């Protein structure tokens, strides 16, 4: 599915001058310079540790010393690399802490993007941080932790891992044993591993890089779920050369917003009293959200319908009462969006009168979103666009501006619609009449 890939800037949602620190191993420096070329110029690249002299050729200019940088004034375009002056073993040192702070203040004032390589890895696919690293500035807005998946299956030793003894300690993996997915996840989640030194309130991203074959792509997909609990974004990268450097997936937390505040006026009886597969309608839809891995699951309902939910069975739902539901569906959409955490990448809107929607369909929508961050993603049955619909966070402002009995489909004229084919036409059914309910019961 390489044709769906995104570049780093899009996957990171960097739509303004950025301040990004990059750490880890397995293509970290290549990723940093790739991002530098994708961001609007001018871009400043620096390091808090060391960088290879040969790597300075990746920039349009290399300036040694902050004073020389200030005097040159040559940053109107392109990528400028700023380092210290000391060169040892073909590696040049970074700026002192006060110089880096000054460079950050200057970049912020001028509207430049600033990228910082904040540790070393000796060119190996995996690593564990040493005692004095990483050196991440407190003002970094985003930290990207890179791990090279070509290290999977390789022995835990210094041929493949920088500081294998620390990696072994953090993961519980004996020395020289093959590195598995579980061991790598443990290191990436460890406060002395991948999460080490990341300032509080900084956006945390992990890049599972070097996923250059189907087996490694599958491994990245499996690792994403446990990592998403501690990282805001889990990216899968195929950054193997300068021509084909793309992000194959950028997984973010995706919420479920279940719209269940209607009065069932067309049906004439509360849908909470109707059962499908032994559960009421709303419990079916809630279960679909959980089974598809959506977090959080938000239910916008009315007081009468909320009584039908077994909250002991679903303790983690966010249950919202809409006291002005008579003002239209837009009020429920607004309430749901306003309840979501800031790190949410999008929301799947599920309808309570469609208890037959399968979790696999929702999962397919989420996977398509991970590959391309399309604004709107919907199932397609033949030539018909169906529910449920996934709305990317870039549409949230427009969803919040809806008024009256207007739903998200009113945005279809503004945003391109990405569709996911689905062969089962039963997802087109929504239950508004007893005839619809009879049709639904035949699906049991």
TrEMBL record:
InterPro entries: MobA-like_NTP_Trfase (IPR025877), Nucleotide-diphossugar_trans (IPR029044), YqeC (IPR017587)
GO molecular function annotations of the record: nucleotidyltransferase activity
CDD domains registered for this protein in UniProt: GT_2_like_f
Leader sequence residues: none
One Pfam family this sequence matches: NTP_transf_3
Boundaries of every MobA-like NTP transferase domain copy: 256-415
NCBIfam families (alphabetical): selenium cofactor biosynthesis protein YqeC
Protein's name according to its UniProt entry: Probable selenium-dependent hydroxylase accessory protein YqeC
Organism: Longilinea arvoryzae
Lineage, highest ranks first: Bacteria, Bacillati, Chloroflexota, Anaerolineae, Anaerolineales
């Amino acid at each position: 599915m390489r044709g769906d890939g995104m570049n780093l800037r899009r996957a990171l949602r960097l739509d303004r001058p950025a301040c990004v620190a990059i750490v880890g191993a397995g293509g970290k420096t290549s990723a940093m310079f790739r991002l530098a070329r994708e961001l609007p110029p001018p871009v400043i690249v620096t390091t808090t540790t060391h960088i290879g002299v040969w790597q300075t050729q990746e920039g349009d200019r290399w300036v040694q010393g902050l004073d020389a940088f200030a005097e040159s004034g040559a940053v109107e375009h392109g990528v400028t690399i700023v380092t210290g002056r000391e060169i040892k073993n073909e590696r040049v040192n970074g700026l002192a802490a006060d110089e880096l702070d000054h460079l950050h203040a200057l970049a912020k004032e001028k509207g430049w993007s600033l990228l910082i390589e904040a540790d070393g890895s000796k060119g190996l696919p995996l690593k564990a941080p040493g005692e004095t690293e990483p050196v991440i500035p407190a003002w970094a807005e985003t930290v990207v932790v890179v791990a090279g998946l070509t290290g999977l299956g390789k022995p835990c030793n210094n041929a493949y891992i920088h500081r294998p003894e620390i990696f072994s300690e953090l993961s519980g993996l004996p020395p020289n044993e093959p590195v598995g997915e579980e061991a790598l996840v443990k290191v990436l989640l460890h406060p002395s591993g991948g999460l080490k030194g990341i300032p509080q309130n900084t956006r945390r991203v992990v890049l599972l890089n070097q996923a250059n074959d189907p087996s490694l792509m599958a491994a990245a997909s499996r690792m994403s779920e446990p990592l998403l609990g501690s990282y805001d974004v889990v990216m899968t990268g195929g950054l193997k050369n300068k021509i084909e450097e793309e992000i194959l997936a950028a997984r973010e937390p995706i919420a479920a917003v279940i719209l269940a505040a209607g009065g069932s006026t067309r049906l004439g009886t509360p849908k909470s009293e109707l059962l499908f597969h032994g559960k009421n309608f709303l419990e079916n839809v809630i279960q679909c959200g959980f089974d598809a891995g959506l977090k959080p699951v938000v239910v916008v309902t009315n007081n009468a319908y909320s009584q039908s939910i077994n909250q002991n069975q679903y303790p983690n739902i966010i249950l919202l009462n809409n006291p002005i539901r008579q003002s239209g569906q837009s009020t429920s959409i607004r309430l749901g969006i306003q309840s979501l955490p800031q790190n949410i990448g999008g929301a799947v809107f599920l309808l309570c009168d469609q208890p037959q929607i399968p979790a696999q369909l929702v999962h397919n929508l989420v996977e398509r979103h991970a590959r391309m961050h399309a604004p709107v993603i919907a199932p397609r049955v033949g030539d018909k666009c169906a529910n449920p619909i996934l709305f990317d966070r870039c549409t949230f402002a427009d969803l919040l501006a809806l008024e009256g009995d207007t739903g998200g489909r009113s945005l279809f004229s503004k945003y391109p619609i990405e569709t996911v084919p689905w062969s089962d036409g039963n997802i087109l059914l929504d239950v508004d009449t007893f005839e619809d309910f009879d049709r639904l019961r035949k699906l049991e």
